[in-house]
Every structure is written in structure tokens, then in C-alpha cells.
Amino acid sequence: MTSTDTPARGHNATGEPRPVSWLDRSGSPATSAPRRGRRRRLPHLVTGVLLVVLCVGGAVWWTTSTQDRTPMLALAKPVALGHVLTPADLRSIDVSAAPGVALIPADQAASVVGRPMATSLGPGALLTPDAVGGAAIPAAGRAVVAVGVKPGQFPPELAAGTPVTVVVTAATAAGTSTTTAQGQGPGTSWRATVVGVSPAGTDQTSVVSLDLDTGSASQLAQVPAGQLALVMQPAGGGR
Q1: Strand extents, DSSP E, 39-181
Q2: How far apart are the C-alpha atoms of 25 and 27, rounded to whole Å?
Q3: Residue 162 and residue 83 in contact, taking contact as beta carbons nearer than 8 Å
Q4: pLDDT (mean) for 201-221
Q5: Are residues 148 and 207 in contact, defined by beta-carbon separation less than 8 angstroms?
Q6: For residues 222 and 147, is the Cβ–Cβ distance under 8 A?
Q7: pLDDT tens for each residue of 130-151
Q8: CA-CA distance, 185 to 190, in Å (whole number)?
């Protein structure tokens, strides 16, 4: 009679013992193999922790750098030497100034409005105390000379800080020589910057103070009155 009993647990079909899943071939408890899933998750966990640290560090840095920035006065448009500042000329910019850099805080705008520029600056330039106020003129190697001009010999828009070309014209009175001792005849010209313009007197003559190099100032001073014309030039081209 053939037995239909199944082999006992731990034995094969021939009756020989076989190792069970928790025993190795020698019969000793088997050491479970490490799971691959855990090995794969570890690098991802480390990467996530690093990302969190970087994000927190970046947030702290951004907050600190923002807190160190202070509103300072800057120019909203280009201004020339001698230009009287108005509120429209100013804007506020948040900056982180280095130690020792003198800037004007934005809440002190009232202290500079109505004052002349001591230099020419472009838009976005930060204002410093030295940039506002009376200009130190004439500078070394330069001189200031006054010329008398009548209506039609200079643009009415002429103002302090305007770069101009001073041109010798023909004589206005009959018999007056158009050539000076230095040979400055009609067409001779010099580049200069307007320092100031006085109102016209009873004879309709306006006095314009010009800043130019010393040699040119000496030549210009010898040109007879009434033989000069002032031509406005683009900003920044006066020197």
C-alpha cells in the first residue's frame, strides 16, 4: 500500500532532512540578509537633511542682510554742478554701507533740498555730504572769469552747472577791432562751465561767471565786451 502522507516538515521527498528557512545548511540559525530597501533610503534621508539645513541657513542669512540695509538718499536723475536740488531729484535706496562711508539717510532729505550741487552726478548715484553745498571753485589749474552778454548772445535757460562753448563773434560797434592782442578773432572758442548768472542790469547786460582753465581764462578776459556768444553743450561736456 502506497502512503499518501506528505513529507514531514524539514524533510524532502526521500525522507532526508532539509534545512528550513531559519536554519543554514549546517543547522545553525541563519543570519538574515540586510534589506536593500533600507540601504537605498539612507542616502535620500541624508540629502533631505542637508537641504533643510541649507534652506534654514539661507533664510537666516537673508534676514540678517536685509536688516543691515538702511534707506539712503540717491539721485533720481542726472544733476550738474550748481543745480539746486528739489524733491523730484531725490529717491531712496536701501543699501548696506561699508564702515567709514559717509552717506545721507533718506529721512534727512529736507536738509539737502534747496541746496546746490557741489559736483555733477548721474542717476542712481548715492549722495554724500561732500556732494551737496558750495562747490570748491576754482580748482587747481582753473580760474573763474566774468563775461557780459546781452539778450540773444546766450540761451535764457542758462544756469549754474551748464557746460558751454564761448565763441568770439564779429564786432557790434562800427570801427571796433574784432581781433585782440592775443589774436582771438571771430570763431575762436573755449569750453567752460557756468558758475553763476546775474540778472540783467538796466543796460540789459547779464554777467555770466565761467569756470575754465587758467590759460583760456586769461585769453577770454581780453575779448572786448559785446563780442562773445555762449552756446549750451550737453551735460558732462563742459570740461
Answers
A1: 70-75, 90-95, 142-149, 163-168
A2: 5
A3: no
A4: 89
A5: yes
A6: no
A7: 888 876 677 778 899 999 999 9
A8: 12
pLDDT value at 199 more than 60: yes
Direct distance between the N- and C-terminal alpha carbons of the chain, in angstroms, rounded to an integer = 127
- DSSP secondary structure of 103-159: --BGGGGGGTTTPBBSS-B-TTPBP-GGGBSS---SPTTEEEEEEEE-TTSS-TT--
Q: Which amino acid is at 49?
A: V
Per the DSSP assignment, residues forming a β-bridge with 168 are: 228
pTM for this one? 0.47
pLDDT score at 112: 92
d(CA 181, CA 172): 18
Strands 163-168 and 228-232: antiparallel
C-alpha torsion sign, points 208, 209, 213, 218: positive
Q: What is the C-alpha to C-alpha distance for residues 112 and 85, in angstroms, rounded to an integer?
A: 7
Check: CB of residue 238 under 8 Å from CB of residue 189: no
Q: Which fold has domain 70-131?
A: Type Iii Antifreeze Protein Isoform Hplc 12 (3.90.1210)
Identity of the residue numbered 192: A
